[in-house]
Amino acid sequence: MQIPLRSDNQTSEDFKPYKIYLLKRIFGVGYDEFDGKVIIASSAKAARKIANLKYGDEGPLWTDANQVLCREIPLTMPMVVLESFRAG
Question: Span 32-54, mean pLDDT?
Answer without folding.
Answer: 95
